[in-house]
Amino acid sequence: MMQILVLNGPNLNLLGTREPEIYGATTLADIEADCVAHGASIGLTVNCAQSNCEGSLIDHLHAARGTMSGVIINAGAYTHTSVALRDAISAIALPVVELHLSNTHAREAFRHISLIAPVCVGVIQGFGARGYILALDAIKGHLTRG
Length: 146
Ligand code: DQA
Fold this sequence. Notes:
With 146 residues, the protein is α/β, with parallel strands linked by helices. The protein is 38% helix and 19% strand.
């Protein structure tokens, strides 16, 4: 089975209680369990990680090189600020799908810019927790059909 890393960034450990009107009521543990189950149903082994630290997210991306076939990342606020995360995504030369629970384009102007989008194969946002399932389907399609 192809190995996929589902990587969540800062403050996403608080999902379920964090601004549920924006991010929904589903916890990160529930999202991760759904990702593992859905991944298995479409032939993907899903590995999940979360960190609030920029450097740790970069370490997870480096570790994915050579072990994972692709990555789904919700980089949280680092999406809008982190050149280092963008460089890490470029460096590992793996297909990476950028994901957001909310539609960042419908929010504050500072969320309209993604520094990582240009180095990702695609972006899924605005569909809440369902977006992770959509992202798994998308990366499976990308890996198997190009
Ligand atoms: C987010 C959107 C980001 O702008 C924000 O900083 C987050 C969550 C989302 O999933 O909608 O932490 O990535």
